[in-house]
Every structure is written in C-alpha cells, then in structure tokens.
Amino acid sequence: MKATKFLSVLFCGLTALCVTSCINDDDDNEKIVPLTKEQVAQCYQMIKGNYTGHLVFSVKNAATSQNGVDSVATTWSVINDSTITVDKFPAKLIADVVTNTNMKEALAKADPQTLTCYYGFISNSPIQFLVNPMTLNYTLNYGGAEHKVSVAFYVNSPYSFGAYDYQKTIMEMQLLVGAVYEDGKTTTYLRETTPLVFSSKKKN
C-alpha cells in the first residue's frame, strides 16, 4: 500500500477533528458538556464490535536518516463502553524508535501483546473519544541480565483520541508513545514522541 499517502489522509482527518475540539475549548461561549448515560450508551451501541485495518507508524531510513511511514495489519475490539483492546500489538514498533542497541534488539524479538486502552466519549455528533492506553510491560534479557521494560503512552491528552464514522463504519485512533522505562527508572532511550495511527473498518 502507499503508506505515505494513507498516513497523510489519516492525519488530515484526525487533525481536523482535533482542531475543531481546540477551537471549541478556546471559545468562552462554548462549554464541553459531559454526555449523559443515555448518550454514552447510544455511542457505544454504534461503535461496539470488532475491527480490521491498519496501524500506521513512522520509520527512519537508515541510509538517508529521513523519516518515512509504514503500516501493518491490525485488529481491535470495542468490548464495552470504556475499553478497547488491540490484538497482538507488535513490540517491534517500539524497538524501531528505541536508541539503546541492546534494548532495541531484545524488544524486536519480544512476543506481541494485547494493548488495552480505556476511552471516554467527548462528543456524540460526530462520535469522538479520548483514549488512554495502558502501559506495556516486557521482561527482556539483554546486556547479560534480565530487565523489566515498560512502554508508556500519553494519557488524558487531546492528542490521544479517536473518532468513528457511522456511515462508513470506520474508526480511527491516534496514540502517542511517550516514554520507555527500564527496571522502574525513566530512560532517554525513546528517540522521539511517536504517533501511532489506527484506521479500521468494523467487521460486525
């Protein structure tokens, strides 16, 4: 697939939604009103189910040091009105943006994990929601020792969000990888804050 074009289209759509939200936040006459239980239930009924599509991410060309994009197939499920689970999230995507060579190589070999995300609706027309991914934890062996490596995402952030197009039954989300921890300590091994863009169509 033409990943560059695909990522550009996704970011345009997601950015437009984010800009709209920010404009509303800055308008003194506009107040964000929490959705009612009935509205939340209606939104959940619209988006619940299983999705299949692509996870798009940034990659660095080793020869030119230029950033590009790539994508992998992905599936996820909206299992209740507060939880989304991404199936078999590949640790290799994190390894690609880790600068420590030993950790990078170990992460690249780690088994995929289920990524659990908690979400909350902020709008029902269009359907929009904030996404709070849980930290991914890995037990890895490198440098002659066993290490606990944790990958943390941005939470409670306007840049970690999603939207659903009920007419096309397409959901899109953006998550941000924000930090990598080693044995409970903060590191500087994450090359940069890394956006991950998900775009999938509902299967049922």
What's the average pLDDT? 86
- Topology order in helix (H) and strand (E) letters: HHEEEHHEEEEEEEE
What class, by secondary structure content?
A: alpha+beta
Which strands sit side by side, in order, in the main sheet? 1-2-3-4-5-8-9-11
How many domains in all?
1
CATH class: Mainly Beta
* Terminal CA distance: 24 Å
The low-confidence runs, each spanning 5 or more residues with pLDDT under 50, are: 1-9, 17-29
**CATH structural fold name:** Porin
What is the total tally of β strands?
11
Please count the helical segments: 4
The value of Rg in angstroms is 18 Å
- Could you describe the largest sheet, including whether it forms a barrel? 8 strands, antiparallel, barrel
Assign an overall shape. elongated
CATH architecture, please? Beta Barrel
Indicate the proportion of strand residues.
over 45%
Helix content: 10-25%
Summarize the structure.
With 204 residues, this protein is an alpha+beta fold. Helices cover 24% and strands 47% of the residues.
Fold and architecture overview:
The chain is α+β, with helices and mostly antiparallel strands and about 200 residues long. Helices cover about 25% and strands about 45% of the residues. Strands 1-2-3-4-5-8-9-11 form an eight-stranded antiparallel β-barrel. The longest helix has 24 residues, at about 5-25. It comes from Prevotella aff. ruminicola Tc2-24. Keywords: Signal.
Task: Summarize the SSE layout with pairings.
Layout lengths: L2 H24 L10 H11 L1 E12 L6 E12 L4 E7 L1 H5 L5 H9 L3 E12 L2 E7 L2 E7 L2 E9 L7 E5 L4 E13 L2 E2 L7 E9 L2
Antiparallel strand pairs: 1-2, 1-11, 2-3, 3-4, 4-5, 5-8, 6-7, 7-9, 8-9, 9-10, 9-11
